[in-house]
Write a structure and sequence with these properties.
Blueprint lengths: L3 E3 H13 L5 H18 L3 E3 H19 L26 H20 L1 H5 L42 H10 L5 H12 L6 H34 L5 H9 L19 E5 L7 H12 L9 E10 L7 E11 L2 E12 L17 H9 L4 E7 L10 E8 H5 L3 E2 L14 E2 L17 H13 L8 H13 L5 H6 L5 E5 L8 H12 L7 E5 L1 H6 L4 E8 L2 E8 L8 H12 L5 E8 L2 E7 L1 H10 L9
Antiparallel strand pairs: 1-2, 3-8, 4-5, 5-6, 7-8, 9-10, 11-16, 12-13, 13-14, 15-16
Helix pairs in contact: 1-2, 2-3, 3-8, 6-7, 6-8, 7-8, 8-9
């Protein structure tokens, strides 16, 4: 069935929607206006049926909000509003309960007076077997809707006329029998709870068939690219293409079954003992990874207590030896409440494979092991996953390169739009940060005095963290040692004393060269009293430095850092604060002496972000 209408055909359908009592007269007029706008905008007399369906979805959403009373306040007298005073007891008194019951009764009376409340009770329930709504109803992003009444008052928006609505879409030719059958099956499965959902499902299905041929061609094109890039063999390419059923588009995860150097796993096939299961998985991974002859495999589950009273983390620590090199890596396994027992059941630790990439980097390999997730959120399959060994060039075959980013016109050669291939993990193909090189880098940091203010225990702790984490930049190394880099978000999570906390931290990273005292920070007081500025000050070398910093919600004022920098400069301190991490609204700062900066800027220039 043709998916496009002429303007005259679309006008006829708009009127038919009114005659079959799906749209009101106002709804018909609104649809005609949108059709005219569409033709003018596209400079064409052709209108896609999906455009008409989208307008129906919009109008059902608007009227759903109206008939549920969600687009306006119920007019209560101020004396009827519940105003329970704070009580020393958490249990309401008898008088408070009586007052609350009176309020509920008043609310019900006011509710029943509203015009929008009278529409749905008059409509016969033609679909008494209700569907279970999966997820939330998506409402338009508006706070007050000035327009409503687009749907006929003889048509429900709350699910009473879903079957009739679907039949009507078929009857007037907005959908064909193929779309009807697909949507009806979804409806019978209990997934479509309102007429708006019926129209939305019809829209999605129409667009699927409308775009199917193009999307199928894109998948075949990708398969051919993967075959040319030696990701899929020629014979497996033919098997994959021949495996397509009628009207089937595959998930890219399904390609993994046909790829070279790839393997899939299902946790249901393994022992529930975490160490036994993961050891078996790593043994099977040898089929994919060359010369991966590991020994002394070990798994530990350790609890890391939250430092701010939130959830604790349970980490999975994997370790093994290859050719006398000891490898270890820590990954998140679970979150735990303070009173919750550790979970020892088998589950997927999504970054467990990273330890293998440490081994590959040490082998100076041009490949990396990628984790393949079967299903993206929110319906993730927590039992099945895959792995695949790819070069950087092979990984690029799965995604589309672009030349700009949304917030900048700067061309980023290594940035990719990766929505379709997001089932594959992100890996770094850079062997500069292998085990031996990282040890040399740490030795250089020690030699130039970056760790001169750390205790032996703090240095040892940093080196242990290095072994357990993925290292891909110089700042990754420094971040794992204490008192090296201050990293914070300019939209602060600390609303009590952010300037005091950060000033103390800048003192800690200065290796004793900047020691602020008597720090004052009225940030929280200013927020509570709704002042436009907060007072900030500190003493350094016998002088008080102070400023009134502007208050803008929970955002920090950059002037606080300017005050610190001016104090350092004014006192001829041998050192400056440098940006070493730029993450848009968050940043990392390091304090370096003149000689330290000169050395690092010459030998590790990547440590300092360059701006175009």
């Amino acid at each position: 069935m043709a998916q496009n209408l002429t303007f005259e055909e679309a006008k006829k359908i708009a009127h038919e929607l009114y005659e079959i009592e799906l749209l009101s007269k106002k709804g018909e007029k609104q649809l005609l206006q949108e059709l005219e706008k569409n033709c003018t905008k596209n400079k064409s007399d052709s209108i896609e049926k999906s455009f008409v369906l989208q307008q129906l979805v919009n109008m059902f959403q608007v009227d759903l909000m109206y008939r549920m009373g969600m687009d306006r306040d119920i007019p209560f007298d101020k004396n009827t509003r519940h105003n329970r005073q704070k009580s020393s007891s958490a249990i309401p008194t008898k008088e408070e309960i009586e007052e609350y019951e009176k309020l509920l009764k008043k609310m019900e009376e006011e509710f029943n007076k509203q015009e929008w409340h009278k529409i749905e009770p008059k409509i016969e329930d033609e679909d008494p077997q209700k569907s279970e709504t999966k997820g939330f109803i998506v409402f338009p992003m508006v706070s007050r809707l000035k327009e409503h009444g687009f749907i006929s008052e003889k048509r429900s928006v709350l699910g009473k006329t879903r079957t009739r609505t679907l039949n009507d879409l078929l009857k007037i030719g907005l959908i064909d029998s193929l779309v009807f059958e697909d949507v009806y099956k979804e409806f019978k499965n209990g997934n479509l709870s309102t007429e708006g959902y019926i129209c939305s499902a019809a829209l999605d299905t129409v667009e699927f068939y409308q775009k199917f041929e193009n999307e199928k061609n894109k998948q075949i094109e990708l398969i051919n690219k993967l075959e040319k890039g030696n990701v899929i063999s020629q014979s497996n390419k033919e098997k994959l293409i021949n495996s397509y059923q009628k009207w089937e588009l595959k998930k890219l995860y399904e390609f993994i079954f046909y790829c070279n150097n790839a393997k899939t796993f299902n946790l249901k096939e393994y022992s529930n003992d975490v160490e036994k299961a993961y050891k078996s998985i790593f043994e099977e991974m040898k089929e994919v990874i060359p010369k991966f002859y590991f020994q002394s495999f070990k798994i530990d589950l350790k609890i890391e207590k939250s430092s701010y009273g939130g959830l604790d983390t349970q980490n999975l620590i994997i370790s093994f030896d290859v050719d006398s090199v000891h490898y270890t890596h820590s990954v998140l396994y679970d979150y735990l409440r303070a009173d919750e027992k550790p979970d020892s059941t088998l589950k997927i630790a999504h970054n467990f494979h990273k330890i293998v990439n440490k081994f590959l980097s040490d082998q100076n390999s041009d490949t990396r092991l990628y984790f393949a997730e079967k299903t993206n959120n929110p319906n993730r399959d927590e039992n099945e996953f895959g792995i695949i060994l790819l070069t950087k060039e092979q990984r690029r075959l799965w995604k589309y390169k672009i030349e700009s980013f949304y917030f900048s016109d700067v061309k980023l050669e290594e940035y990719y739009s990766d929505i379709e291939a997001s089932f594959l993990s992100t890996e770094i193909h850079d062997n500069r940060f292998n085990t031996k090189n990282v040890e040399k880098i740490i030795a250089e940091y020690e030699e130039i005095g970056l760790f001169s203010h750390l205790s032996e225990a703090e240095i040892k702790e940093g080196k242990e963290k290095i072994k357990q984490n993925e290292i891909s930049t110089y700042s990754d190394i420094l971040m794992l040692f204490p008192k090296q880099i201050i990293f914070f978000d300019w939209e602060s999570g600390n609303l009590e004393n952010p300037y005091e906390e950060l000033t103390q931290e800048f003192g800690e990273i200065s290796r004793g060269k900047f020691v602020p005292t008597n720090i004052e920070d009225s940030f929280w007081n200013s927020i509570e009293t709704r002042k436009k500025t907060c007072f900030y000050s500190f003493d350094f070398n016998g002088k008080t430095y102070k400023a009134d910093l502007r208050i803008k919600s929970d955002w920090l004022a950059p002037h606080f850092m300017e005050l610190i920098e001016s104090a350092i400069k004014e006192n001829n301190v041998d050192g400056k604060i440098y940006v070493c991490i730029d993450d848009i609204q968050a940043a990392g700062y390091i304090f370096l002496s003149k000689s330290q900066y000169e050395y690092l800027n010459k030998n590790q220039p990547e440590l300092f972000p360059k701006y175009p």
